[in-house]
Design brief:
Elements lengths: L2 H25 L15 E2 L3 E2 L7 H20 L14 H20 L7 H5 L2 H14 L1 H4 L23 H10 L1 E5 L3 H8 L3 H12 L7 H14 L1 H4 L25 H10 L1 E5 L3 H19 L3 H6 L5
Antiparallel strand pairs: 1-2, 3-4
Helix pairs in contact: 1-2, 5-13, 7-13, 9-10, 9-12
Organism: Luteimonas padinae
Keywords: Cell inner membrane, Cell membrane, Electron transport, Heme, Hydrogen ion transport, Ion transport, Iron, Membrane, Metal-binding, Oxidoreductase, Repeat, Respiratory chain, Transmembrane, Transmembrane helix, Transport
InterPro entries: CcoP_N, CcoP_N_sf, Cyt_c-like_dom, Cyt_c-like_dom_sf, Cyt_c_oxidase_cbb3_su3, Cytochrome_c_Oxidase_Subunit
Length: 311
């Protein structure tokens, strides 16, 4: 708040308090010549008379005490423009104190799960239930209440992991987040292979997942362009690179859709996906619990335990 607005607020508050004080003092005082409370001359039906009796003294004193309390309140708490108050109270400090108390309660609740391996927690029904509750509050907005994702948000119930599905990799994803970037290749590919270059690469990419190409020429041209541009991330065989988050193009799953149009859009204009970091929001133990829940959802948990590198 600027100094000018601060002065305006302070002046407005002071004038209102003084005005209320003066109004109360003026209306509660009887003056010479005022009619008696029962002599207002307002009479109806012969025997119904309107009186004008003053408020009881204790009530008037109560009003004054209320205004005195208001002044004390405004001096102690920040209610006068930029004046912070002698109590140095802030809503942020109040929030932080309340949060610290609740965090202590949560820490005690989650203490039995501190540092336990993800696979061990995934076998503990109580831990999985807690992880499911944390997931519903924190992760379901993007991944859905059933964790099956949506367009642009990965399905967490299958065994496809772009950044790896080992215990450590899943936990790292939750704690520190991920950022996947697919560059825009439309202009580059068009310069290399003409106006059908993007379509050709999309056709070849679909063939890597077992789709029979409708046009063998496009598939053949797409293979050459793929090997000149895409292999750096996705590999010569299309198996991807988990260190980069580059997806496996041979498994038939495409997070943004596997139609020709969707794949062409991805190739032409790129994609930018962000999984937010939850270390500061959830802390180590709650992140570990939600990671164990996510890890337990995969249909290939047993196989992944035996061979993490297969993911």
């Amino acid at each position: 708040m600027s100094t000018g607005w601060s002065i305006y607020v302070i002046a407005l508050v002071v004038l209102n308090l003084l005005g209320l004080w003066g109004l109360l003092a003026w209306t509660s005082r009887r003056r010479p010549g005022d009619p008696k409370p029962d002599e207002t001359s307002h009479v109806w039906d012969g025997d119904i008379t309107e009186y004008n009796k003053p408020l009881p003294r204790w009530w008037i004193i109560g009003f004054y005490l209320t205004m005195v309390y208001s002044v004390a309140y405004l001096l102690w708490y920040p209610g006068l423009g930029n004046f912070k108050g002698f109590g140095n109270w802030t809503s942020a400090a109040e929030h932080d104190a309340d949060k610290a108390k609740q965090d202590a309660v949560l820490a005690e609740t989650f203490r039995p799960y501190d540092g336990r391996p993800i696979s061990e927690l995934a076998g503990d029904p109580r831990a999985v239930e807690l992880g499911r509750a944390i997931f519903a509050n924190t992760c379901a907005t993007c991944h859905g209440s059933s964790a099956q994702g949506a367009v642009g948000y990965p399905n967490l119930t299958d065994d496809i992991w772009h950044w790896g599905g080992s215990e450590e990799q899943v936990l790292q994803t939750v704690l520190d987040g991920r950022e996947g970037v697919m560059p825009e290749w439309g202009t580059v590919l068009t310069g290399m292979g003409g106006e059908n270059a993007v379509l050709s690469v999309a056709t070849y990419v679909r063939s890597l997942a077992g789709e029979v190409p409708e046009n063998d020429f496009f598939a053949a041209q797409g293979k050459g362009l793929y090997e000149g541009v895409c292999v750096a991330c996705h590999g010569i065989d299309g198996k991807g690179n988990q260190d980069l988050g580059a997806p496996d193009l041979t498994d038939g799953y495409a997070m943004y859709g596997n139609s020709v149009e969707s794949i062409m859009e991805t190739i032409r204009n790129g994609r930018h996906g962000v999984m937010p970091a939850h270390r500061d929001l959830l802390g180590e133990t709650r992140s570990r619990l939600v990671a164990s829940y996510v890890w337990s959802l995969s249909s290939n948990t047993a196989g992944r335990e035996q061979s993490p590198e297969a993911q």
